[in-house]
C-alpha cells in the first residue's frame, strides 16, 4: 500500500499507547521487512500468510484496488479473524486498505468491539463505527453519503490528519514566513520509482539561482539514490538527506517545497510550507486540486506529464513573487495544525 499508510497507522498506535492502549499490527507476509519498524515503535506484529506463487484465487472484483491484496478479501478476512481469535477481543479493529470494504469489515466485526476504517477514496461502502478521511476534497462532507450507516461518526478533513508529534512541535517553532525563497525542499516520499526527484533537481539547476539552497530527501528504498547524489554535486548549495528522520525540521526551515500528494500534503500544511506539487497516483488528484483551490499549493498535474521545463516555469513564477508565496504559506497553515492524532484518539475513547 505504501509507507504513508503504515506511517499514519503507527502515528495513531503511538498516540493510543500514550493512553495505555496496546496495539497489534496485522501485516501480510510480503511486508515482513517492515516488522522491525513496527516493533521498534513498541507494537506487536502478526503476519498473515500469503498464498503460494500462482495459487491466487481468481475473482471478478469490481474494485480498482483488488489486486493490491495477494489473495481474496474473503481469505484475508478469514486469516484476520483467526488472528483476532488468538489475540482476544479487541476494543478497536482499525483497517487501512483500499481493497477492503463493508464485506470484509462485517466479516471481521466479531473480533472487535468497534471498528475504525481509514479511507481516502470514498469509492466503496463501509460497515464501521468511525470513519477517518483526512483529506481536503471538494464537497468533503457529502463524500460518504450512502456509503456508511447513519450511526457512523465521520472524521473528515486535514483537521484529523494523522501526523507525527514532531510536526506540531516544529510548528510551535515557526517564525513568520516572508515569502522570499532562499531554501527549497525536494521530497517525493519513500521510493520515488519514476525519479521525480531528479526532474525537480534539473528544474532547479535550470533556474541558475546559486544563492538558493536545496535540501533533497532520499527515502531508504529509492533506487535512484546514486544518480540523485551526482546531480546534487553539480548544484550549488544542495544537500542530500538519506532516510531523513527530521523531515519536520527540514520542512520548517524550507521556504518552498517540491513534491507529490499524500500525507506529505498535510505535513507541509502543518508547517505553512508552500508547495509545487504533482500527483504520482490518481488518488492524489482530488486533494491536490483542493489544495490549489485553497491557495496553498501550485498543482501542476500528473507527474508523468510534467516536464522539467514546466517545473522550472512554475518555480520561477514563485521565486519572483514573495507576496504570493507568503499567502500560499498562510493558506496552508490554516488547514492542518498537527493535532489530528489527538482528536482521533479522543473520539475513540468517547
TrEMBL record:
Its EC number is 3.6.1.57. It holds the Pfam family Glyco_tran_28_C. Residues 186-332 form the Glycosyl transferase family 28 C-terminal domain. It is an enzyme of class 3 (hydrolase). InterPro entries: Glyco_trans_28_C, PseG. One of its GO terms (molecular function) is hydrolase activity. It comes from the Bacteria. SUPFAM superfamilies: UDP-Glycosyltransferase/glycogen phosphorylase. Keywords: Hydrolase. The keyword Hydrolase applies. This is UDP-2,4-diacetamido-2,4, 6-trideoxy-beta-L-altropyranose hydrolase. It comes from Bradyrhizobium yuanmingense. The lineage of its organism: Bacteria, Pseudomonadati, Pseudomonadota, Alphaproteobacteria, Hyphomicrobiales.
Amino acid at each position: 500500500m505504501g509507507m504513508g499508510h503504515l506511517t499514519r497507522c503507527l502515528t495513531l498506535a503511538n498516540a493510543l499507547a500514550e493512553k495505555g492502549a496496546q496495539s497489534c499490527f496485522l501485516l501480510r507476509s510480503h511486508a515482513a521487512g517492515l516488522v522491525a519498524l513496527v516493533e521498534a515503535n513498541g507494537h506487536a506484529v502478526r503476519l498473515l500468510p500469503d498464498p503460494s506463487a500462482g495459487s491466487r484465487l481468481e475473482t471478478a472484483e469490481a474494485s480498482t484496488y483488488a489486486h493490491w491484496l495477494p489473495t481474496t478479501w474473503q481469505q484475508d478476512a478469514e486469516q484476520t479473524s483467526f488472528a483476532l481469535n488468538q489475540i482476544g477481543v479487541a476494543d478497536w479493529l482499525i483497517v487501512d486498505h483500499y481493497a477492503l470494504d463493508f464485506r470484509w469489515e462485517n466479516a471481521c466485526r466479531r473480533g472487535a468491539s468497534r471498528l475504525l476504517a481509514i479511507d481516502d477514496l470514498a469509492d466503496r461502502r463501509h460497515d464501521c463505527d468511525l470513519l477517518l478521511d483526512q483529506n481536503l476534497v471538494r464537497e468533503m462532507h457529502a463524500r460518504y453519503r450512502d456509503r456508511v450507516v447513519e450511526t457512523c461518526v465521520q472524521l473528515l478533513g486535514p483537521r484529523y490528519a494523522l501526523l507525527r508529534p514532531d510536526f506540531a512541535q516544529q510548528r510551535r517553532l515557526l517564525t513568520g514566513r516572508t515569502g522570499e525563497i532562499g531554501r527549497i525542499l525536494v521530497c517525493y516520499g519513500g521510493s520515488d520509482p519514476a525519479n521525480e526527484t531528479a526532474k525537480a533537481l534539473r528544474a532547479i539547476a535550470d533556474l541558475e539561482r546559486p544563492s538558493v539552497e536545496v535540501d533533497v530527501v532520499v527515502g531508504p528504498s529509492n533506487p535512484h539514490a546514486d544518480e540523485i547524489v551526482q546531480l546534487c554535486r553539480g548544484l550549488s548549495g544542495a544537500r542530500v538527506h538519506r532516510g531523513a528522520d527530521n523531515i519536520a525540521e527540514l520542512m520548517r526551515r524550507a521556504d518552498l517545497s517540491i513534491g507529490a500528494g499524500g500525507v506529505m500534503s498535510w505535513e507541509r500544511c502543518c508547517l505553512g510550507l508552500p508547495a509545487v506539487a504533482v500527483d504520482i497516483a490518481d488518488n492524489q488528484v482530488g486533494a491536490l486540486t483542493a489544495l490549489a483551490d485553497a491557495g496553498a499549493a501550485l498543482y501542476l498535474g500528473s507527474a508523468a506529464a510534467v516536464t522539467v521545463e514546466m517545473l522550472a516555469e512554475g518555480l520561477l513564477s514563485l521565486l519572483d513573487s514573495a507576496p504570493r508565496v507568503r499567502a500560499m504559506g498562510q493558506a496552508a497553515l490554516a488547514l492542518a495544525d498537527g493535532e489530528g492524532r489527538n482528536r482521533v484518539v479522543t473520539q475513540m475513547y468517547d
